[in-house]
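Entry 12.
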Amino acid sequence: MGMTRRMFLMDLARRKGFRVESELSDSVTHIVAENNSYLEVLDWLRGQAVGDSSRFELLDISWFTACMEAGRPVDTEMKYRLMEQDQSSPLNTPESEVPSFIASKDAFEIMAENYEFKENEIFSLEFQRAASVLKFLPFPVTRMKDIQGLPCMGDRVRDVIEEILEEGESSRAKEVLNDERYKSFKQFTSVFGVGVKTSEKWYRMGLRTLEEVKADKTVKLSKMQKAGFLYYEDLVSCVSKAEADAVNMVVKNTVYTFLPDALVTITGGFRRGKNIGHDIDFLITSPGSREDYELLHKIVDLWKKQGLLLYCDIVESTFTKEQLPSRQVDAMDNFQKCFAILKLCQPRADNSSDNTSKNLDMAEDKHWKAIRVDLVITPFEQYAYALLGWTGSRQFGRDLRRYATHERKMILDNHALYDRTKRTFLKAASEEEIFAHLGLDYIEPWERNA
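Predicted 3D structure (tokens):
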């Protein structure tokens, strides 16, 4: 498993009274593996010069999870053991057995979102951090003792947890879900191009639903918001990994047409290993010294000719050399960007060539899907920092910047890392080098979701 997760679980076990070794030794009795087969563990043991593996219990991570939940070592039943014929599989708790707390963990995200709509950043962050910590736990929380010693568990968070454990749900989260303002803001912000400020404006105008917004002739929509409404159904639906892969091919083929040596990298949630998302982000750079400031314009023009472009907005770079990194945790970077909506063609369910199909309404005969795509152009020397920032997650990036500022006396953003003590910019050719500058072990992208 990843180093960050392993260290977290080891520390958790030690706090519950377990003895956990960092290296194989004579005192080890149980070996726990995650996403490894029996044969893979045997190969690892042979690499450790172990001739007889029978003295160890070789167990799946599900045994460890059960131990953490019980607060003591549980019996090593057959269902937990790694078996030679791959008879074992991770123990999945049936949906009906999951405590209400886990089923209601969205309560924290609901609370965070509500405070974000109210522009109360402090309270919103408090619940976002709590949600991140709770998602990372390898066991369900069934009592208040389970969160003892965990970070980001403030009084407001603890009150919500306690109520869920006692009542099965959070009355505060329930109130939010039934709140008229929250429901309106939830609808409004689901539209591409609509943020909290616009939602507040519409709400004060007495508008409560998207239908009312569309029907109100006094509402002036931006070009982006018009596209958001026009392709609303497609844009609010999730983008699958297969769709992301298809768009990846389109973007790469287009970029290589104009810049054959370009480096095109998919970022965001898909780089973090997620199978679904709401948009697809790409970083584009070139190892050459020459920057092509017209590249995005060339890409857009080609997509227009190919009939693939449904909307685009190009924002030019505002970066100046020797510019210090931004001290703001959530500051936008200054790269040249293109916010686009692409038409991704999909295979027809019916290959019929019946002429009557020509008379069908476009929505009924639609064989494509509108997909949100962001293209970001970055200078090659800033690529590692841009990759780290655009990979996310938002909470991970936020905390990494905070760590750099408070623990290392450095300023980190998507462009650079500046050492305030030495008064110098720290160069990095990879994400690994950035983590090294910060004195941290490298954290894989798929470990940055919480």
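Annotation: The two ends are 15 Å apart (CA to CA). Residues 417 and 426 are 6 Å apart (CA to CA).
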